[in-house]
Amino acid sequence: xxxxxxAVLYGGTSSEREVSLESGRNIYSAVQALGYDASLIDYPxxxxxxxxxxxxxxxxxxxxxxxxxxxxxxxxxxxxxKFSGSKSSACRRTWNKRICKEILExxxxxxxxxxxxxxxxxxxxxxxxxxxxxxxxxxxxxxxxEEDGSSIDVFKISNEKxxxxxxxxxxxxxxxxxxxxxxxxxxxxxxxxxGKCLPPIEIITKESFYNYAAKYINDDxxxxxxxxxxxxxxxxxxxxxxxxxxxxxxxxARIDLLQRADKSFYVIEVNTAPGMTSHSLFPKxxxxxGLDYNSLVEEIINAK
Length: 304
Known about the structure:
Number of helices: 12
Shape: globular
Number of domains: 3
Mean pLDDT: 92
Largest sheet: 6 strands, antiparallel
CATH class of the largest domain: Alpha Beta
Structural class: alpha+beta
CATH topology of the largest domain: D-amino Acid Aminotransferase, Chain A, domain 1
Low-confidence stretches: none
Strand content: 15-25%
Radius of gyration: 19 Å
CATH superfamily of the largest domain: ATP-grasp fold, B domain
């Protein structure tokens, strides 16, 4: 069926609502410019199956649980409504960081050492004692919620003071977290469009890592094309395509990685509904190969 009428779902109820609002507005403008009959729907307050069925295609511009957990994808699939991105099964494998990392480990795809906790413990020593069994004693760690995005409640921890400040600044400490080894050399992201890697992007920030401020607020964050030898690029793309395929992703996704000084790569997470804001990584990578924002949106709509 020819796609003529497209609804862009944006907003949501997660901590990433503001990011989704910007992504959605940008995508909506692109869909209009491409000549489609477009509508912009704030999810879930303005969405219903009835108005979903009135469209030939749903562009999911929702971040966080609303757009990445797989529940919406399952609903749309059950109603035979076409939508952007991966099916529910792939979203569920990637949205939960613990599940994602378990799958990576089982399939021998490199990922930083880690362990999980049911909630942030009361003291640093409770994490430190378990950390010694998993990592080198002088290794910094990341604390990350199992389920969240845009670096919400993600903290880099070097000492007890960092941990205390993280707990004080955490918006929701009483939920599952993963504790992950810090690889402090290069931060890389690789967008995948219709099963093919776009140019890798290296992230350079003055923050301690690519946190919320670096992503959406600071103007001095640098997103540059990552330059690798042909062998390293081949290795990187192979890891990313293997990850994309293993998780069952479709249409588009973004693989985030860290690189050690020895040039080895480690997958940290997979995004099935990447950001499409003015600061976002996917449009930046697409632009390197001459794919402007509107053309990128059309490629996502037509991706198989």
